Amino acid sequence: MLRCWLVAFTGAFLFVSPSHAARCGGNFNSFIQSFSQEAAAAGISQNVISSALGGVQQDGGVLAFDRRQRYTFNKTFEQYVATRVGPGRINGGRAMLQRHAALLSRIEQQYGVPRQILVAIWGLETDFGKGDMGKLPVFRVLATLAHDCRRTELFQGELLAALKIVQRGDLALNDMIGAYAGEIGQTQFLPSSYIKYGVDFDGNGHVDLRHSVADVLASTANLLHTNGFKMGAPYGEGTANFEAMREWNRAVIYRKTIGYFADQLVGR
Question: In the CATH hierarchy, which top-level class contains the domain 7-69+134-185?
């Protein structure tokens, strides 16, 4: 779920400020050369830069998709939730609660986010990691959007964060596959959120939000916890926890759907 240019607005500017951003528009290859210099100045190795951006091409399909998006819901909550939370997904979520009960208990204890909220988000985003995590090369997507002048600082920040993911060894270059705004993994983190909230919960030395269920769920919990989510408090519309979920998604209907799905998982 694209988080409405959302979480990234805060995170991205930690990486690239407008005064130091590469100039958008114009020749794409010249833009990439300029950005590569900025990335090197920010501490990204030449090997990572050349591997990720060498030969990268602009993607007209990404630009066309971006221009079609409105990032608003044109359905009522009842219409939307009926398309997203059916018996099959509820049963699948309950199975995930059982399968990962010990892991979810540890995450609850450390981050104070209830397991049903985490599993609801996981299910809505990628059907518990079994669904579509995106099929587009992240660096091609982000380079295309960064070159476009409408939100260049935002996406230059995301592009630099994506380079940092590779440099840290969290994901290999061939695992940097995502959706139409560069979202990555089983709960669809933008790269800046990956860097800001990602947790190595399985203890293998890497934050792997594509393959590690432990990292995926703990990182999602960390995002919510960091933004004020409190265990044991209600999370319906109008509550502090509902507002804390705004960092996940600004859309009221989507947050209501998370809460509805979570309640269904625990029989409320």
Answer: mainly alpha
Domain range annotation of the chain: 7-69+134-185, 77-133+196-265
DSSP string, the chain: ---TT-HHHHHHTTT--GGGSPPPSS-HHHHHHHHHHHHHHTT--HHHHHHHHTT----HHHHHHHHH---S--S-HHHHHHHH--HHHHHHHHHHHHHTHHHHHHHHHHH---HHHHHHHHHHHHTTTTS----EEHHHHHHHHHHSTTSHHHHHHHHHHHHHHHHHTSS-GGG-EE-TT--BTTTTB-HHHHHHH---TT-SSS--TTT-HHHHHHHHHHHHHHTT--TTS--STTSHHHHHGGGT---HHHHHHHHHHHHHHTT-
CATH number 2.40.128.20 given to 77-133+196-265 = no
Per-residue pLDDT tens over the stretch 212-265 = 999 999 999 999 999 999 999 999 999 999 999 999 999 999 999 999 999 999
**pLDDT single digits (tens) 105-153:** 999 999 999 999 999 999 999 999 999 999 999 999 999 999 999 999 9
Predicted model pTM: 0.91
